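Hi R.,

Here's the chain you asked about this morning:
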Amino acid sequence: MKELVEKLAAELLEAERMNQPIAPLTDRYDQLSTVDSYHIQLEAVKKKLLEGRTVIGKKVGLTSTAMQNMLGVNEPDYGHLLDDMKVDNGGTVQISTMVAPKVEAEIGFILGEDLKGPNVTYLDVMMATKFVVPTIEIIDSRIADWKIKLIDTVADNGSSAKVVVGDQFSLIDQVDLRSTSMTLYKNDDLIATGAGASALGHPAHAIAWLVNKLHEYGIPLKAGELILPGALSAALVVSSGDTITAQFGSLGSVSVSFQ
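And the predicted structure, written out as tokens:
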């Protein structure tokens, strides 16, 4: 299995570099388990770190019931955020550098202290969080036509591509994250709305799940890392010429354009 893990990690990295999707892993290798898929992701991340990249955070995906039902799963997934994935607020992303991008609006958490499982709770997450910040996650699938099952998206770094980080950092104790509203605009048209409760009832619950899941692989969350707890609405397909803006009430806003 170790050889297959290394082979598929290399395949996914090449697909990302060349912007050429590959056939679903689950169509080709029915012996793959979810644990195998996490090892594929970790192998790909290891290769990127050897190339000089650094981890700046993590992301949780599949936190909504609708997304879990669509993939036939009953738990979220996660991926790594690396330094070359970060986009400044108001920045521009070249569509040609991705396969089939979509965007999701999320409330990002900036940790003030390390978190390590097991048995981490929502309250532990709240106490360890220094700031929250508006973010847009740009997701992409190196699996052709988004024909993914849980194993496919986990192996593919949780289908993560880039993260756009807002400029306004709010202290965690100054906001009610459960009721924080989100409005998502595409070229000034209101496309979607949501609230913090969309991410497992409260974004901190999603991060607690992540910490405890990462414990299985000996990985902590570290002070200073950016943690994305999951989308507050359905993912939105984007094309060249689009500008996306997510507004989070008192938390501020974040935007990105595509060429």
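Residues 66 and 72 are 10 Å apart (CA to CA).

Let me know if you need anything else.
M.
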